[in-house]
Every structure is written in C-alpha cells, then in structure tokens.
Amino acid sequence: MEEVIRPKISIVIPLYNEAEVFDELRQRLEELMKAFELSIEVVMVDDGSSDLTAEKMRKLSMENKNFQSVFLSRNFGHQIALTAGLRFAQAQEAIMLMDADLQDPPEMIHKFYEHLKQGNDVVYAVRSSRQSTFLMKIAYSLFYRAMKRFSYINIPLDSGDFAMISRRVADHINAMPEESRFIRGMRSWVGFRQIGISHDREERKSGNSKYSLKNLISLALNGLFNFSKYPIRFTVMLGLVALSSSLAYFLITLFRKFVIGDVPSGFTALLFTIILFGGLQLIAIGIIGEYVLRIFFQVKNRPLYIVKERIKNGETTIE
Ligand code: UDP
Ligand code: MG
Fold first, then answer.
1. Please, which pLDDT band fits residue 264 given cuts at 50, 70 and 90?
2. Which site in 112, 261, 263, 299 is 20 to 30 Å from 233, CA atoms measured?
3. 284 and 175 part of one domain
4. Same domain for 121 and 234?
5. Which ligand has its closest atom nearest to the C-alpha of 204?
C-alpha cells in the first residue's frame, strides 16, 4: 500500500480572471510555503476564467506539486468555487480560505494557525478598515448590521470568507447539502469555538473586482434569506398593521355615516388605499417568492458545480 501523505494545511483560493495578479500571488504563496513550519497544499479553483488564469494555474501545478488545480466547467460564482475548493482540500489539520487578489494577506496564516492551536475551530479575519468607495462602505456596513440584527445565527460583523477552519468544521460544511451557499453564515452555524482577529483590508493588487453589483446584491440576499426568518415575520407584521389600521378607518367611516350622518367623500383616500395595499401585497408575495425560489432550486438536487479537469501531484485528470 502506498502511503498517502496529507498536507497539514490547505489554502483554498477561487480564481476568476485573475491572470493579472497571478504571478504575484504565486510568488507570495511560494515564499509562504518556505517560511511556514508545516506542509501546505494550495487548492486553486478556476471558476470558468476566460483570460490566461487557467493556463497559469496549469503551469504552476505541473511545476510545483503542492499546488492542486481544479477547473470548473463554467463560471459558478465565488461561493460555489469556494465550496468546490473546500471539498478537494486534503489537509489533516486546517483549511484557510482566501481570495486571489491579495486583498487579504496570505501571511495571516501564521496568526490564524496560532489561534487555531489554542483550541479554536474557526479563526476569521475582521476588517478594521476597508479600501472602498464611500457609498460602498456605507452599503457594506448597513448590510452587516442588518445581518446581525435579523439573522438567527451570530454572523460576526465585518468579516468575510477570509478565515482558517479546522478539519472537522470543513467536514461539516462539506456535508451541508444546501444549494444557495453563504459560506461565512454556514461557518458560523457550525459552532464550536470561533474567534475573530482584526486586520486591515488592503486594496486589490491588480485587476478589477470580479463581483458585479448584481452579484453583491445576490450575495447579500442569500445572507439575509438563508439565515433569517424575519422577512416572513415582517410580512405578517405588515399585514397586521395594515389590517388594524383599515379596520379602524372602517369603523370611523361607519360612525360618520350612521351617527353624524355625512357620507364621507373619500375618493382620494380610496385610490391611495388601493395603491398602498396593492404594493404591500406585491412585496409580501415577493418575499414569499424568495423562499419558494430557494426551495425550488434546492429540490432540483443538482450538483453544485461541475469539474472539467483537475491537476494533482502533477497529474491531470479529465473528468
Ligand atoms: N471570484 C470567483 N468567481 C466569481 C467572482 C469572483 O471565483 O464569479 C473570485 C475572485 O477571483 C477572487 C474572489 O472570488 O479571488 C473575490 O472576488 P473579488 O476580489 O473580485 O471580490 P471583492 O473583493 O471585490 O468583493
Ligand atoms: Mg477582492
């Protein structure tokens, strides 16, 4: 029997059109591997890039066996690429998740690992500063605070997916079958001892953000709808408020008609009410729709991604 030597730590990195930053990423990781006390494997996941990312990954994986490459059949999105990487990570002890753009310094591995060894299962980075436009900063801040307020799990403020998790936490996340994945929420849900350590988020080293506004909004909605009962509760509350205020108005109208004796001229009020309730109903249906949509995609039970090729230990497997 050939003995399989598993690395101690895996670093999972999703890449989508990151050719511009790739060489610097490679250099930083190779230096890190030399400096770190334990054996490291890097799992790069190509999320259907259309630039030179895949070629660069292939070359690196052939030259250095500590770099595993997984190529998805198309662009599945950041959270799914992370999911794929997590499933292919072989580390015995811990897995670090990071972005390719070096906004989150890979050198944090030392700090992460130190805290992991102290008995934490999840060590996540908390951004003490963020390089972004003023409006985006406000949007991010509002989102994280809304999540904190509304979610039934304790998702830490201002922390993304940059983290190190223990083998068992990774196993638990891998075993979750959910289709709509919000990794940082799933990570919190798992529990055990979790700790946040702060760091300054740097600017992307090169290239542009691969998250369009649409993707960001969809990520935020996933966070909100996948980990909160509030949207549904909110519609019930809205309905109750609407019902009681219209009942009150109805009683006032009856009183005016039969006791005072004037017939209220309420055309404007009528129009206003119809529009108001039409809108409220649409919002309520929309909120229910968000949940139905999630059920719909979940029951299809499709695989989360499709791998078209993999390079491990310098050997290529075409799926
Ligand atoms: N990414 C991905 N698939 C996508 C979009 C992004 O794998 O569809 C990767 C991207 O290459 C990067 C990470 O996810 O490694 C985070 O993306 P980005 O830095 O563009 O997001 P931002 O930091 O701007 O939120
Ligand atoms: Mg980034």
1. low
2. 299
3. no
4. no
5. 2
- The strands making up 94-97's β-sheet, listed across from edge to edge, are 194-200, 122-129, 159-166, 94-97, 9-15, 40-46, 67-72, 307-312, 315-318
Residue with the smallest CA separation from ligand 1 atom 22 is 209
Cα of 15 from ligand 2 centre, angstroms: 10
User: Which residue type, as a one-letter code, is found at position 81?
Assistant: A
Pocket of ligand 1 (CB under 6 A): 14-16, 18, 47, 75, 77-78, 81, 99-101, 103, 204, 209-211
Query: What integer pLDDT is reported at residue 192 of this predicted model?
Result: 93
> Are 79 and 121 within one domain?
yes
SS3 for 67? strand
pLDDT in tens, 66-121: 999 999 999 999 999 999 999 999 999 999 999 999 988 999 999 999 999 999 99
User: Would you state the structure tokens that stand for residue 43, as one six-digit string?
Assistant: 């799992």
What is this structure's pTM? 0.80
Domain identity same for 171 and 106: yes
Q: What is the pLDDT of residues 27-64, one digit of tens each?
A: 999 999 988 888 999 999 999 999 999 999 999 999 99
Asked if residue 234 and residue 174 are part of one domain, the reply reads no
Instruction: Give the side-chain half-sphere CA count within 13 A for 299.
Output: 6
Instruction: Identify the CA nearest to 276 among candidates 237, 232, 245, 231.
Output: 245
CA dihedral 70, 76, 80, 82 (to 10 degrees): 40
Measure 151 CA to ligand 2 centroid, in angstroms.
Answer: 25
